[in-house]
Design a protein that fits this description.
Radius of gyration: 15 Å
Number of domains: 1
Number of helices: 5
Strand order of the largest sheet: 1-2-3-4-5-7-6
Number of strands: 7
Distance between the termini: 31 Å
Largest sheet: 7 strands, mixed
CATH topology: Aminopeptidase
CATH superfamily: Gcn5-related N-acetyltransferase (GNAT)
CATH architecture: 3-Layer(aba) Sandwich
CATH class: Alpha Beta
Order of helices and strands: EHHHEEEHEHEE
Length: 157
Amino acid sequence: MQLRLARNKDGNQIINLIKRCFKDYKNCYLDVDNDSPELRDVYSYFKNKKGKFWVYVDKNKIIGCMGYIPHEKNNLEIHKLYIDKNYRMKGLAKKLMLRIESIAKKYKKRKIVLWTDTRFKEAHKMYKKLNYKKMSKTRKLNDISNTTEYAFQKVIN
């Protein structure tokens, strides 16, 4: 298994990974054209935003992903953390989260923020184990999945 920076040509595999992950949740759909067009040119999008996006690859198949973008003046925001269900509970997501924390420390960022679907309860448990705090605010995306998201954040020392 390899962790590497995403390439623009990875878009279709990343889209398929996210669709596979969404199948585990009722009424959870990925509408790439309206909600996530950046997935079609993922490397360029994150580079232009001064962020990065990584993928885990196993046997030429993308089985995990996550990116970050600088957010506000002193924060990083995590985007699109997904791990194929056959590869979960192996520490892959944790490794990605720790990578982001290392980057945040290196660039003297104050905190890391992320938004996560209220349905993704297993992910919420992982964030809490990594000392991310669930914030009181939520946001509604008005997308085809009728998504509501929780905010999590971690202050970086």
